Amino acid sequence: MKIGYARVSTNDQNLDLQIDALKKDGCEKIYSEVISSVKAERIQLQAMITNLRKGDVIVIWKLDRLGRSLKNLVELITQFTQLDVGLKSLNDHIDTTTPQGRLIFNMFASLAEFERDLIRERTMAGLSSARARGRLGGKPKGLSQEAESIACAAETLYKEGKISVNQIAKQLGIAKVTLYNYLRHRNVPIGGYTKKKV
Q1: Sign of CA dihedral 68, 74, 76, 77
Q2: Structural domains of the chain sorted by starting position, each given as residue range(s) with its CATH number in brackets
């Protein structure tokens, strides 16, 4: 069975275009939702996944309607593959029920793995820099081991002052607000940050 999934980020956006296209492609059931926050739970998406059966094909307007990030998208498509469920994106010309579609998905998976490796490499570089300066640091309360490593790297990069706060957040693959939370956990004074000339 073809199952449609449509999503918009704000109430100002309209679902009609997506829903019309999904119906035209032959979707028998369509799940739709308006989700404004990245962290908000996507109830309709979860309901769709719960009701999937072997051989179903999920149809979406575009890949960014399904996944909020490359990592999230790869995780979802991997889950669909394990359930023996296909995915078709109308505007990205991707259909994992075909050999070409599976090839494209495998390229996405490789890019996501590359992205994870880059983040890991940056984090380790930040930790090495912190150790060289004698700042081993303990685990901040409430943070996982991975978050602790990123927080330590964030502290080093922030104190070096060679790149902007936005660049630090981007380099570590975290949101700006998360960066500030990590810095507070490590008791780093915040405010009046200016990028130093090199």
Answers
A1: positive
A2: 2-97 (3.40.50.1390), 118-185 (no CATH)
Is 9 labeled as catalytic in the residue annotation?
A: yes
DSSP 58-80: EEES-HHHH-SSHHHHHHHHHHH
Is residue 57 a contact partner of residue 3, using CB atoms and an 8 Å limit? yes
What per-residue confidence (pLDDT) applies to 45?
92
Q: Do 92 and 63 meet the contact criterion of CB atoms below 8 Å apart?
A: yes
- Alpha-carbon torsion, ordered 156, 162, 165, 168, to 10 deg: -60
pLDDT band at 138 (very low <50, low <70, confident <90, very high): very low
Higher pLDDT pick, 149 / 29: 29
Do residues 166 and 133 touch, judged by C-beta distance below 8 A? no
Give the residue-averaged pLDDT of 79-103: 84
State how far the Cα of 33 lies from the Cα of 52, in Å rounded to an integer: 18
Which of 9, 128, 149, 164 is an active site residue?
A: 9
Cα 105 to Cα 16, 27, 40, 191, distances in angstroms = 27, 22, 26, 43
Q: What is the pLDDT of residues 35-48, one digit of tens each?
A: 865 666 889 999 99
Half-sphere exposure of 186 (CA within 13 A, CB side): 26
